[in-house]
Amino acid sequence: MSRQAPTNRVVQGSVWVEPVQLTFMVVGAGMGGLGLMILFVGCLSTGDTRNRVYRTWRGRVGGRISCAIFMGITYLLTLAWLLMFAVLIIVTIFYTLAWFQCINVPSNECIDYNQD
């Protein structure tokens, strides 16, 4: 008997994979766009460029407000990423603990978490 290489098969009940992938792509593209906007505002609001672009008092106030808004968005996104990182660490720890339980438990009582 010859063994064939595993093929990409769709597991029943995995209809959630495509929406999750699409969500990750949209969030990634949105964060990339936001990063470019923050870079653009940062370049316009520092140094000699600030004096050329924001000449009037009203322009400077608008620049300060846009910087404050982007700083707030960046702060919130940083907190969201840290929260997601903490949740993923907890999930990884529990998966690792469940995976290593098979070392101390007989094989007929062990739950196999591998996805073959």
From TrEMBL:
Transmembrane intervals: 20-46, 67-100
Pfam families: Myelin_PLP (PF01275)
Top-level lineage group: Eukaryota
Keywords: Membrane, Transmembrane, Transmembrane helix
InterPro entries in alphabetical order: Myelin_PLP (IPR001614)
One Gene Ontology cellular component annotation held by this UniProt entry: plasma membrane
GO biological process: neuron projection development
Key word Transmembrane helix present: yes
Protein name: Uncharacterized protein
